[in-house]
């Protein structure tokens, strides 16, 4: 799994940063991409990245502020013009359906693929057997959600040495053993796959926040995750101003990563007032509280590690 940042600015684009959009490349789990938010110009960012619109399987919108959704109608239409026929699922707060359907209708646009729109409520969103996603209500000026993604644990690899020791011949039954099933060999022996599996591989977990001021829900959402992606709209000195507008600061987000026992914090959604020269200071404020912090910039790629 990999996170690819397409836009990392809050509110307005700057020369260095486009407005918010993030890709989760599920590589290793399956050949698909999930997108989180789609600010204006996201399509253009995609053109400068390795992202393929046709591989988008799901889009999660955190809230309906323009810097998070104004790129959506264009992106949906381009996926169609590219000839995609694979279904796409869109999740977002109340109103996302009206926004998309109205935009498509008024512009006489149509899609070549099925678009399934789900208006989100806090709680479990889905579990497809590989990945589980839960929505958490955040505290912004409009209805806003964060998404916690949990990969199921995978069975460990078959211990071939142990199979050899017990003289278990290879054959089509290997698949059943890999899944922990029980088989009967030609010599009459009953073999249980579970006895030959290595330690299970722990699934990865991520918490991808929308805009929010500090809220108790955040602690549950980010508890023990491998990667937490959270906004840091303003620096520590502007805490009051940030919170008044439903946003968090560097230190508030870093304190959340620490308290939730997240392993890695990636900070994004940085106010347009900050230039490249301000980034070391913003990062230092975060690292003072949570050392394993990175500051996202456009086109940055981070592996998701357990
Ligand atoms: Zn925003
Ligand atoms: Zn917002």
TrEMBL record:
Pfam families: Anti-Pycsar_Apyc1 (PF23023), Lactamase_B_2 (PF12706). It comes from Xenorhabdus szentirmaii DSM 16338. HAMAP family: RNase_Z_BN. Residues 195-270 form the Metallo-beta-lactamase domain. Belongs to the RNase Z family. RNase BN subfamily. It is an enzyme of class 3 (hydrolase). Homodimer. Keywords: Endonuclease, Exonuclease, Hydrolase, Metal-binding, Nuclease, tRNA processing, Zinc. PANTHER family: ZINC PHOSPHODIESTERASE ELAC PROTEIN 1. Its EC number is 3.1.-.-. Zn(2+) 1 binds at residues 63, 65, 140, 211. This is Ribonuclease BN. GO terms for molecular function: 3'-tRNA processing endoribonuclease activity; exonuclease activity; identical protein binding; zinc ion binding. Binds 2 Zn(2+) ions. The active site is at residue 67. Its cofactor is Zn(2+). Zn(2+) 2 binds at residues 67-68, 211, 269. Zinc phosphodiesterase, which has both exoribonuclease and endoribonuclease activities.
